[in-house]
Write a structure and sequence with these properties.
Layout: H1 7-19, H2 39-51, H3 64-80, E1 87-92, H4 95-111, E2 123-127, H5 133-141, E3 144-148, H6 158-162, E4 169-175, H7 187-197, E5 200-204, E6 230-233, E7 246-251, H8 253-257, E8 261-263, E9 271-273, H9 283-319, E10 324-326, E11 334-339, H10 351-360, E12 366-368, E13 371-372, E14 378-379, E15 382-386, H11 395-409, H12 417-422, H13 426-433, H14 442-451, H15 466-474, H16 477-491
Parallel strand pairs: 2-3, 2-4, 4-5, 5-6
Antiparallel strand pairs: 1-7, 6-7, 8-9, 10-11, 11-15, 12-15, 13-14
Helix pairs in contact: 2-9, 3-9, 4-5, 9-11, 10-11, 14-16
Length: about 500
Protein backbone atom coordinates (compact mmCIF):
# COMPACT_ATOMS: atom_id res chain seq x y z
CA UNK A 1 0.00 0.00 0.00
CA UNK A 2 1.17 3.51 -0.76
CA UNK A 3 0.72 5.51 2.40
CA UNK A 4 -0.21 9.19 2.28
CA UNK A 5 2.58 9.84 4.76
CA UNK A 6 5.53 7.63 5.66
CA UNK A 7 5.23 6.06 9.12
CA UNK A 8 8.63 7.51 10.02
CA UNK A 9 7.47 11.01 9.14
CA UNK A 10 4.24 10.57 11.07
CA UNK A 11 6.12 9.49 14.16
CA UNK A 12 8.57 12.35 13.73
CA UNK A 13 5.69 14.80 13.78
CA UNK A 14 4.21 13.06 16.82
CA UNK A 15 7.54 13.44 18.54
CA UNK A 16 7.47 17.17 17.80
CA UNK A 17 3.95 17.46 19.14
CA UNK A 18 4.95 15.58 22.28
CA UNK A 19 7.85 17.94 22.88
CA UNK A 20 5.35 20.76 23.26
CA UNK A 21 3.53 18.86 26.03
CA UNK A 22 4.16 19.48 29.68
CA UNK A 23 6.91 17.02 30.66
CA UNK A 24 5.39 13.71 31.81
CA UNK A 25 8.56 12.52 33.48
CA UNK A 26 11.19 13.99 35.73
CA UNK A 27 9.01 15.50 38.44
CA UNK A 28 8.44 18.90 36.84
CA UNK A 29 4.64 18.68 36.84
CA UNK A 30 3.05 18.29 40.28
CA UNK A 31 -0.39 17.17 39.13
CA UNK A 32 -1.86 14.96 36.39
CA UNK A 33 1.13 12.61 36.18
CA UNK A 34 2.18 9.96 38.69
CA UNK A 35 5.74 9.07 37.93
CA UNK A 36 7.26 6.11 39.76
CA UNK A 37 10.64 7.29 38.55
CA UNK A 38 11.34 3.70 37.45
CA UNK A 39 12.03 3.52 33.70
CA UNK A 40 11.73 -0.28 33.73
CA UNK A 41 8.11 0.01 34.92
CA UNK A 42 7.29 2.26 31.96
CA UNK A 43 8.91 -0.28 29.63
CA UNK A 44 6.96 -3.12 31.21
CA UNK A 45 3.71 -1.19 30.80
CA UNK A 46 4.48 -0.42 27.16
CA UNK A 47 5.22 -4.08 26.42
CA UNK A 48 2.04 -5.20 28.16
CA UNK A 49 -0.03 -2.72 26.16
CA UNK A 50 1.56 -3.90 22.94
CA UNK A 51 0.85 -7.54 23.78
CA UNK A 52 -2.89 -6.89 24.01
CA UNK A 53 -3.09 -4.09 21.43
CA UNK A 54 -5.59 -5.83 19.11
CA UNK A 55 -7.70 -7.32 21.93
CA UNK A 56 -11.26 -6.12 22.50
CA UNK A 57 -11.78 -5.69 26.22
CA UNK A 58 -15.52 -5.77 25.61
CA UNK A 59 -15.76 -9.52 25.77
CA UNK A 60 -13.84 -11.49 28.41
CA UNK A 61 -15.41 -14.74 27.21
CA UNK A 62 -13.82 -14.38 23.77
CA UNK A 63 -10.62 -12.75 25.00
CA UNK A 64 -10.08 -14.78 28.14
CA UNK A 65 -6.85 -12.96 29.03
CA UNK A 66 -9.00 -9.97 29.93
CA UNK A 67 -10.96 -11.93 32.53
CA UNK A 68 -7.82 -13.41 34.09
CA UNK A 69 -6.04 -10.06 34.36
CA UNK A 70 -9.11 -8.29 35.72
CA UNK A 71 -9.73 -11.02 38.29
CA UNK A 72 -6.14 -10.82 39.49
CA UNK A 73 -6.18 -7.03 39.73
CA UNK A 74 -9.43 -7.14 41.70
CA UNK A 75 -8.03 -9.77 44.04
CA UNK A 76 -4.95 -7.66 44.70
CA UNK A 77 -7.03 -4.55 45.30
CA UNK A 78 -9.47 -6.36 47.58
CA UNK A 79 -6.66 -7.59 49.79
CA UNK A 80 -5.02 -4.19 49.83
CA UNK A 81 -8.26 -2.44 50.80
CA UNK A 82 -9.30 -4.77 53.59
CA UNK A 83 -12.06 -6.54 51.68
CA UNK A 84 -13.27 -10.07 52.44
CA UNK A 85 -14.89 -12.63 50.14
CA UNK A 86 -18.03 -10.50 50.04
CA UNK A 87 -16.18 -7.72 48.17
CA UNK A 88 -16.19 -7.93 44.37
CA UNK A 89 -15.20 -5.41 41.75
CA UNK A 90 -14.47 -4.11 38.29
CA UNK A 91 -11.55 -2.54 36.50
CA UNK A 92 -12.74 0.68 34.88
CA UNK A 93 -11.13 3.21 32.58
CA UNK A 94 -10.45 5.73 35.33
CA UNK A 95 -11.57 7.43 38.49
CA UNK A 96 -14.45 9.20 36.85
CA UNK A 97 -15.89 5.96 35.52
CA UNK A 98 -15.47 4.28 38.92
CA UNK A 99 -17.29 7.17 40.61
CA UNK A 100 -20.03 7.25 37.97
CA UNK A 101 -20.65 3.55 38.39
CA UNK A 102 -20.72 3.72 42.19
CA UNK A 103 -23.45 6.35 41.91
CA UNK A 104 -25.37 4.48 39.22
CA UNK A 105 -25.32 1.32 41.32
CA UNK A 106 -26.57 3.12 44.42
CA UNK A 107 -29.27 4.89 42.44
CA UNK A 108 -30.58 1.65 40.98
CA UNK A 109 -30.48 -0.09 44.37
CA UNK A 110 -32.32 2.89 45.90
CA UNK A 111 -34.98 2.75 43.21
CA UNK A 112 -35.51 -0.96 43.70
CA UNK A 113 -37.63 -3.06 41.41
CA UNK A 114 -41.11 -4.52 41.19
CA UNK A 115 -43.49 -3.91 44.07
CA UNK A 116 -40.77 -2.27 46.21
CA UNK A 117 -39.82 0.24 43.50
CA UNK A 118 -39.38 3.84 44.69
CA UNK A 119 -40.36 6.94 42.77
CA UNK A 120 -38.95 10.46 43.06
CA UNK A 121 -35.51 11.97 42.71
CA UNK A 122 -32.73 10.34 44.72
CA UNK A 123 -30.13 12.52 46.42
CA UNK A 124 -26.34 12.34 46.36
CA UNK A 125 -24.95 13.68 49.64
CA UNK A 126 -21.30 14.64 50.06
CA UNK A 127 -18.97 17.30 51.44
CA UNK A 128 -18.48 20.15 48.96
CA UNK A 129 -14.88 18.98 48.59
CA UNK A 130 -15.97 15.75 46.92
CA UNK A 131 -14.40 15.30 43.49
CA UNK A 132 -16.29 16.93 40.62
CA UNK A 133 -16.76 13.47 39.10
CA UNK A 134 -19.68 13.13 41.54
CA UNK A 135 -21.25 16.32 40.22
CA UNK A 136 -20.95 14.73 36.82
CA UNK A 137 -22.52 11.51 38.14
CA UNK A 138 -25.47 13.37 39.64
CA UNK A 139 -25.89 15.22 36.35
CA UNK A 140 -25.68 12.13 34.17
CA UNK A 141 -27.84 9.89 36.34
CA UNK A 142 -30.47 12.34 37.53
CA UNK A 143 -29.68 12.67 41.22
CA UNK A 144 -30.09 15.81 43.25
CA UNK A 145 -26.70 17.04 44.42
CA UNK A 146 -26.52 17.98 48.11
CA UNK A 147 -23.12 19.42 49.01
CA UNK A 148 -22.28 19.98 52.68
CA UNK A 149 -20.04 22.93 53.64
CA UNK A 150 -16.67 22.06 55.16
CA UNK A 151 -14.43 23.91 57.60
CA UNK A 152 -11.82 26.31 56.27
CA UNK A 153 -9.30 23.49 56.71
CA UNK A 154 -11.24 21.44 54.15
CA UNK A 155 -12.51 19.01 56.79
CA UNK A 156 -16.20 18.20 57.09
CA UNK A 157 -17.87 17.51 60.44
CA UNK A 158 -19.51 14.06 60.45
CA UNK A 159 -22.59 15.47 62.18
CA UNK A 160 -23.13 18.00 59.40
CA UNK A 161 -23.28 15.17 56.87
CA UNK A 162 -25.37 12.83 59.02
CA UNK A 163 -27.86 15.62 59.84
CA UNK A 164 -28.87 15.61 56.16
CA UNK A 165 -29.64 11.90 55.92
CA UNK A 166 -33.14 11.11 54.69
CA UNK A 167 -35.14 8.53 52.81
CA UNK A 168 -34.28 10.14 49.50
CA UNK A 169 -30.52 9.83 49.98
CA UNK A 170 -29.32 7.06 47.65
CA UNK A 171 -25.63 7.52 48.39
CA UNK A 172 -23.31 9.43 50.66
CA UNK A 173 -19.75 9.94 49.43
CA UNK A 174 -16.68 10.57 51.57
CA UNK A 175 -13.10 10.94 50.38
CA UNK A 176 -9.87 9.32 51.49
CA UNK A 177 -8.54 11.90 51.03
CA UNK A 178 -10.12 14.76 49.07
CA UNK A 179 -8.20 15.91 46.00
CA UNK A 180 -8.21 19.65 46.60
CA UNK A 181 -7.08 19.72 50.26
CA UNK A 182 -5.94 16.16 51.02
CA UNK A 183 -8.53 16.23 53.81
CA UNK A 184 -9.52 12.87 55.27
CA UNK A 185 -13.30 12.70 55.64
CA UNK A 186 -14.80 11.09 58.78
CA UNK A 187 -15.35 7.70 57.14
CA UNK A 188 -16.04 5.65 60.29
CA UNK A 189 -18.81 7.89 61.66
CA UNK A 190 -20.49 8.59 58.33
CA UNK A 191 -20.39 4.93 57.24
CA UNK A 192 -21.84 3.72 60.55
CA UNK A 193 -24.71 6.19 60.38
CA UNK A 194 -25.28 5.38 56.71
CA UNK A 195 -25.57 1.67 57.52
CA UNK A 196 -28.17 2.47 60.19
CA UNK A 197 -30.21 4.41 57.63
CA UNK A 198 -29.71 1.86 54.87
CA UNK A 199 -27.83 4.39 52.73
CA UNK A 200 -24.96 3.36 50.45
CA UNK A 201 -21.62 4.83 51.55
CA UNK A 202 -18.94 5.25 48.92
CA UNK A 203 -15.34 6.01 49.86
CA UNK A 204 -13.65 7.88 47.04
CA UNK A 205 -10.07 6.72 47.37
CA UNK A 206 -9.26 7.44 43.75
CA UNK A 207 -6.13 9.27 44.79
CA UNK A 208 -5.49 7.63 48.16
CA UNK A 209 -6.40 4.04 47.44
CA UNK A 210 -3.00 2.77 46.37
CA UNK A 211 -0.90 4.87 48.74
CA UNK A 212 -2.80 5.25 52.04
CA UNK A 213 -2.48 1.52 52.86
CA UNK A 214 1.19 2.30 53.44
CA UNK A 215 0.77 5.73 55.06
CA UNK A 216 1.29 6.24 58.77
CA UNK A 217 -1.32 7.52 61.18
CA UNK A 218 -4.36 7.30 58.90
CA UNK A 219 -7.83 6.78 60.42
CA UNK A 220 -9.61 3.64 59.17
CA UNK A 221 -11.24 4.22 55.77
CA UNK A 222 -11.37 0.92 53.85
CA UNK A 223 -13.61 -2.17 53.83
CA UNK A 224 -12.68 -2.95 57.45
CA UNK A 225 -15.01 -0.04 58.29
CA UNK A 226 -18.61 -1.26 58.75
CA UNK A 227 -21.04 0.50 56.46
CA UNK A 228 -18.62 1.20 53.61
CA UNK A 229 -20.38 -0.23 50.56
CA UNK A 230 -17.96 0.71 47.77
CA UNK A 231 -14.48 2.14 47.18
CA UNK A 232 -12.90 3.66 44.07
CA UNK A 233 -9.10 3.54 43.73
CA UNK A 234 -7.22 4.66 40.64
CA UNK A 235 -4.54 2.43 39.24
CA UNK A 236 -3.41 5.28 36.99
CA UNK A 237 -2.54 7.43 40.00
CA UNK A 238 -0.54 5.79 42.79
CA UNK A 239 -0.79 2.40 41.07
CA UNK A 240 1.63 4.00 38.55
CA UNK A 241 -0.23 2.53 35.54
CA UNK A 242 -0.63 4.48 32.31
CA UNK A 243 -3.89 6.39 32.06
CA UNK A 244 -7.07 4.41 31.65
CA UNK A 245 -7.22 2.19 34.74
CA UNK A 246 -9.05 2.30 38.06
CA UNK A 247 -10.91 -0.16 40.25
CA UNK A 248 -14.37 0.03 41.73
CA UNK A 249 -14.86 -2.45 44.55
CA UNK A 250 -18.30 -3.12 45.98
CA UNK A 251 -19.39 -4.93 49.08
CA UNK A 252 -22.20 -7.46 48.62
CA UNK A 253 -22.58 -9.34 45.34
CA UNK A 254 -26.29 -8.59 45.14
CA UNK A 255 -25.68 -4.84 45.36
CA UNK A 256 -22.89 -5.03 42.80
CA UNK A 257 -25.06 -6.78 40.25
CA UNK A 258 -27.03 -3.53 39.96
CA UNK A 259 -23.88 -2.03 38.43
CA UNK A 260 -24.35 -4.23 35.36
CA UNK A 261 -26.27 -3.41 32.25
CA UNK A 262 -27.61 -6.41 30.40
CA UNK A 263 -29.78 -6.75 27.35
CA UNK A 264 -30.54 -9.57 24.97
CA UNK A 265 -33.31 -7.57 23.35
CA UNK A 266 -31.77 -6.62 20.04
CA UNK A 267 -30.80 -8.68 16.99
CA UNK A 268 -27.06 -8.58 17.78
CA UNK A 269 -24.79 -10.10 20.44
CA UNK A 270 -25.95 -9.90 24.07
CA UNK A 271 -24.64 -6.76 25.81
CA UNK A 272 -23.77 -7.61 29.39
CA UNK A 273 -21.21 -5.51 31.19
CA UNK A 274 -20.54 -3.57 34.37
CA UNK A 275 -18.90 -0.53 32.78
CA UNK A 276 -19.86 2.36 30.52
CA UNK A 277 -17.90 1.66 27.35
CA UNK A 278 -18.58 -1.03 24.79
CA UNK A 279 -15.56 -2.08 22.77
CA UNK A 280 -12.48 -0.96 24.62
CA UNK A 281 -8.75 -1.33 24.89
CA UNK A 282 -7.35 -4.01 27.17
CA UNK A 283 -4.09 -2.05 27.24
CA UNK A 284 -4.43 -0.09 30.47
CA UNK A 285 -5.69 -3.21 32.28
CA UNK A 286 -2.73 -5.24 31.03
CA UNK A 287 -0.29 -2.48 32.00
CA UNK A 288 -1.79 -2.08 35.46
CA UNK A 289 -1.82 -5.84 35.95
CA UNK A 290 1.83 -6.09 34.97
CA UNK A 291 2.90 -3.22 37.20
CA UNK A 292 1.09 -4.62 40.23
CA UNK A 293 2.85 -7.94 39.80
CA UNK A 294 6.22 -6.31 39.36
CA UNK A 295 5.85 -4.09 42.41
CA UNK A 296 3.81 -6.27 44.74
CA UNK A 297 2.86 -4.81 48.09
CA UNK A 298 6.51 -4.35 49.07
CA UNK A 299 7.23 -2.29 45.94
CA UNK A 300 4.13 -0.17 46.46
CA UNK A 301 5.16 0.34 50.09
CA UNK A 302 8.64 1.44 49.06
CA UNK A 303 7.29 3.95 46.55
CA UNK A 304 4.78 5.25 49.13
CA UNK A 305 7.59 5.78 51.61
CA UNK A 306 9.40 7.88 49.04
CA UNK A 307 6.24 9.94 48.57
CA UNK A 308 5.92 10.32 52.35
CA UNK A 309 9.51 11.53 52.73
CA UNK A 310 9.10 14.10 49.96
CA UNK A 311 5.72 15.24 51.27
CA UNK A 312 7.18 15.80 54.75
CA UNK A 313 10.14 17.65 53.31
CA UNK A 314 7.98 19.90 51.12
CA UNK A 315 5.63 20.59 54.01
CA UNK A 316 8.63 21.73 56.04
CA UNK A 317 9.80 23.91 53.16
CA UNK A 318 6.40 25.58 52.86
CA UNK A 319 6.01 25.93 56.63
CA UNK A 320 9.32 27.77 56.47
CA UNK A 321 8.18 30.23 53.81
CA UNK A 322 6.85 33.43 55.31
CA UNK A 323 3.47 34.33 53.84
CA UNK A 324 2.34 30.84 52.82
CA UNK A 325 0.63 28.09 54.79
CA UNK A 326 -0.36 24.48 54.19
CA UNK A 327 -4.14 24.15 54.44
CA UNK A 328 -5.41 21.86 57.20
CA UNK A 329 -3.68 18.63 58.07
CA UNK A 330 -3.18 16.85 54.76
CA UNK A 331 -3.26 13.05 54.66
CA UNK A 332 -1.41 11.43 51.76
CA UNK A 333 1.05 12.73 49.17
CA UNK A 334 -0.70 15.97 48.28
CA UNK A 335 -0.76 19.49 49.65
CA UNK A 336 -2.94 22.56 49.26
CA UNK A 337 -1.13 25.82 49.92
CA UNK A 338 -2.83 29.13 50.70
CA UNK A 339 -1.73 32.65 51.46
CA UNK A 340 -1.07 33.12 55.17
CA UNK A 341 -3.51 35.81 56.31
CA UNK A 342 -1.89 35.93 59.74
CA UNK A 343 1.16 37.84 58.54
CA UNK A 344 1.07 41.50 57.46
CA UNK A 345 -0.21 42.13 53.92
CA UNK A 346 3.22 43.16 52.66
CA UNK A 347 4.67 39.84 53.85
CA UNK A 348 1.92 37.66 52.41
CA UNK A 349 2.45 35.45 49.37
CA UNK A 350 -0.55 35.03 47.12
CA UNK A 351 -0.84 31.31 46.33
CA UNK A 352 -1.62 31.90 42.66
CA UNK A 353 1.14 34.42 42.00
CA UNK A 354 3.41 31.92 43.71
CA UNK A 355 2.29 29.11 41.38
CA UNK A 356 2.81 31.32 38.32
CA UNK A 357 6.24 32.35 39.54
CA UNK A 358 7.25 28.76 40.35
CA UNK A 359 6.56 27.96 36.70
CA UNK A 360 9.30 30.44 35.79
CA UNK A 361 11.62 28.20 37.82
CA UNK A 362 10.61 25.13 35.81
CA UNK A 363 7.96 23.49 37.97
CA UNK A 364 4.24 23.35 37.21
CA UNK A 365 1.91 23.62 40.20
CA UNK A 366 -1.88 23.55 39.94
CA UNK A 367 -3.96 26.62 40.76
CA UNK A 368 -7.23 25.92 42.58
CA UNK A 369 -9.95 28.61 42.77
CA UNK A 370 -11.58 29.92 45.91
CA UNK A 371 -15.10 28.66 46.53
CA UNK A 372 -18.14 30.23 48.13
CA UNK A 373 -19.96 27.51 50.08
CA UNK A 374 -23.74 27.30 50.50
CA UNK A 375 -23.45 28.73 54.03
CA UNK A 376 -21.64 31.80 52.70
CA UNK A 377 -18.19 30.89 54.00
CA UNK A 378 -15.36 31.08 51.48
CA UNK A 379 -12.72 28.45 50.96
CA UNK A 380 -9.57 30.35 50.00
CA UNK A 381 -7.76 30.04 46.70
CA UNK A 382 -5.01 27.46 46.92
CA UNK A 383 -2.19 25.93 44.94
CA UNK A 384 -2.05 22.17 44.69
CA UNK A 385 0.96 19.85 44.72
CA UNK A 386 0.74 16.11 44.13
CA UNK A 387 3.94 14.43 45.27
CA UNK A 388 5.10 11.24 43.54
CA UNK A 389 8.16 9.00 43.91
CA UNK A 390 10.05 10.95 41.26
CA UNK A 391 9.72 14.11 43.37
CA UNK A 392 12.54 12.85 45.58
CA UNK A 393 14.99 13.12 42.68
CA UNK A 394 14.28 16.86 42.24
CA UNK A 395 13.58 17.74 45.86
CA UNK A 396 16.43 20.20 46.33
CA UNK A 397 15.79 22.04 43.08
CA UNK A 398 12.05 22.12 43.75
CA UNK A 399 12.53 23.41 47.30
CA UNK A 400 14.75 26.19 46.03
CA UNK A 401 12.22 27.05 43.32
CA UNK A 402 9.37 27.24 45.85
CA UNK A 403 11.37 29.52 48.18
CA UNK A 404 12.69 31.77 45.41
CA UNK A 405 9.28 32.12 43.78
CA UNK A 406 7.77 33.14 47.10
CA UNK A 407 10.49 35.75 47.64
CA UNK A 408 9.83 37.16 44.18
CA UNK A 409 6.08 37.67 44.64
CA UNK A 410 5.85 38.36 48.38
CA UNK A 411 3.66 41.38 49.08
CA UNK A 412 1.99 41.41 45.67
CA UNK A 413 -1.72 41.30 46.38
CA UNK A 414 -3.97 38.70 44.81
CA UNK A 415 -5.66 39.71 41.56
CA UNK A 416 -9.00 40.90 42.85
CA UNK A 417 -12.30 40.04 41.25
CA UNK A 418 -12.95 43.76 40.67
CA UNK A 419 -9.62 44.24 38.93
CA UNK A 420 -10.19 41.13 36.84
CA UNK A 421 -13.60 42.39 35.77
CA UNK A 422 -12.37 45.92 35.20
CA UNK A 423 -9.70 44.57 32.88
CA UNK A 424 -12.40 43.32 30.54
CA UNK A 425 -13.18 45.48 27.52
CA UNK A 426 -16.18 47.66 28.36
CA UNK A 427 -18.58 46.05 25.93
CA UNK A 428 -17.69 42.60 27.23
CA UNK A 429 -18.19 43.66 30.82
CA UNK A 430 -21.55 45.13 29.98
CA UNK A 431 -22.64 42.05 28.07
CA UNK A 432 -21.57 39.77 30.89
CA UNK A 433 -23.26 41.72 33.65
CA UNK A 434 -26.54 42.17 31.72
CA UNK A 435 -29.29 40.19 33.40
CA UNK A 436 -30.01 38.53 30.10
CA UNK A 437 -30.87 34.92 30.79
CA UNK A 438 -30.28 33.79 27.23
CA UNK A 439 -27.29 31.51 26.88
CA UNK A 440 -24.37 32.85 24.87
CA UNK A 441 -24.16 31.57 21.33
CA UNK A 442 -20.94 29.93 20.27
CA UNK A 443 -20.04 33.09 18.36
CA UNK A 444 -20.72 35.42 21.31
CA UNK A 445 -18.76 33.19 23.66
CA UNK A 446 -15.84 33.18 21.22
CA UNK A 447 -15.93 36.99 21.07
CA UNK A 448 -15.72 37.21 24.85
CA UNK A 449 -12.82 34.75 24.88
CA UNK A 450 -11.02 36.81 22.25
CA UNK A 451 -11.63 40.01 24.21
CA UNK A 452 -10.08 38.54 27.34
CA UNK A 453 -7.15 37.19 25.36
CA UNK A 454 -8.10 33.54 25.46
CA UNK A 455 -8.93 32.83 21.85
CA UNK A 456 -6.61 30.51 19.99
CA UNK A 457 -5.56 28.84 23.21
CA UNK A 458 -4.20 25.92 21.20
CA UNK A 459 -0.74 27.32 21.92
CA UNK A 460 -1.32 26.21 25.50
CA UNK A 461 -2.18 27.94 28.71
CA UNK A 462 -1.47 31.63 29.20
CA UNK A 463 1.86 32.44 30.84
CA UNK A 464 0.13 33.73 33.95
CA UNK A 465 -2.86 31.86 35.31
CA UNK A 466 -3.60 34.06 38.35
CA UNK A 467 -5.59 36.66 36.37
CA UNK A 468 -7.59 33.93 34.67
CA UNK A 469 -8.42 32.27 37.99
CA UNK A 470 -9.48 35.63 39.40
CA UNK A 471 -11.77 36.14 36.45
CA UNK A 472 -13.21 32.66 36.92
CA UNK A 473 -13.92 33.59 40.54
CA UNK A 474 -15.51 36.92 39.57
CA UNK A 475 -17.96 35.70 36.95
CA UNK A 476 -21.08 33.66 37.73
CA UNK A 477 -20.26 29.95 37.53
CA UNK A 478 -22.70 29.14 34.68
CA UNK A 479 -21.10 31.87 32.58
CA UNK A 480 -17.56 30.71 33.27
CA UNK A 481 -18.61 27.15 32.54
CA UNK A 482 -20.06 28.30 29.22
CA UNK A 483 -16.89 30.18 28.30
CA UNK A 484 -14.61 27.32 29.21
CA UNK A 485 -16.81 24.95 27.20
CA UNK A 486 -16.31 27.22 24.20
CA UNK A 487 -12.57 27.35 24.81
CA UNK A 488 -12.24 23.58 24.94
CA UNK A 489 -14.64 22.97 22.05
CA UNK A 490 -12.74 25.33 19.77
CA UNK A 491 -9.47 23.65 20.68
CA UNK A 492 -10.40 20.67 18.52
CA UNK A 493 -12.30 22.37 15.74
CA UNK A 494 -10.74 21.88 12.31
CA UNK A 495 -8.76 24.97 11.34
CA UNK A 496 -9.19 24.67 7.60
C1 LIG B 1 -8.52 11.91 40.24
C2 LIG B 1 -9.68 11.79 41.15
C3 LIG B 1 -10.95 11.42 40.66
C4 LIG B 1 -11.27 11.30 39.18
O1 LIG B 1 -10.41 10.46 38.55
P1 LIG B 1 -10.02 10.53 37.01
O2 LIG B 1 -9.13 9.34 36.91
O3 LIG B 1 -9.33 11.82 36.74
O4 LIG B 1 -11.25 10.36 36.21
C5 LIG B 1 -11.95 11.24 41.59
N1 LIG B 1 -11.73 11.44 42.90
C6 LIG B 1 -10.54 11.82 43.39
C7 LIG B 1 -10.37 12.04 44.86
C8 LIG B 1 -9.47 12.00 42.53
O5 LIG B 1 -8.28 12.39 43.00
Amino acid sequence: MNFDHEPADILKRLGELRRADAPTHGGRVLSYVYDSGLAELDELAASAIRAVQPVNGLDPTTFTSVAVMEREVIEFARNLLGGDADVVGTVTTGGTESCLLAVKTARDVWRGTGSSARAGTPRLLAPVTVHAAFQKAAHYFGLELDLVPVGLDGVVAAKDVIARFGDDVAIVVVSAPSYAHAAMDPVVEVAAAAAEHGIACHVDACIGGWVLPFWEGVEPWNFTVPGVTSISADLHKFGYAPKGASVLLQRDRDRQRAQYFATTRWPGYPIVNPTILGSKSAGPLAAAWAIIQALGTSGLAELSESCARSTRALRDVIDGIEGLRVVGDPVGPLLAVASDEVVAADRRVDAHHWADQTREHGFLLQLQPSLVQSDGTILPATTHLTITPVTESVLDELSTALRSAADEVRGIPAVSAEVALAALPAEVGAALSAPDARPLSSEQAAQVLAAIGLAGASDGLPERMAPLLALIGALPAPLTERLLTELLARLVEPTS
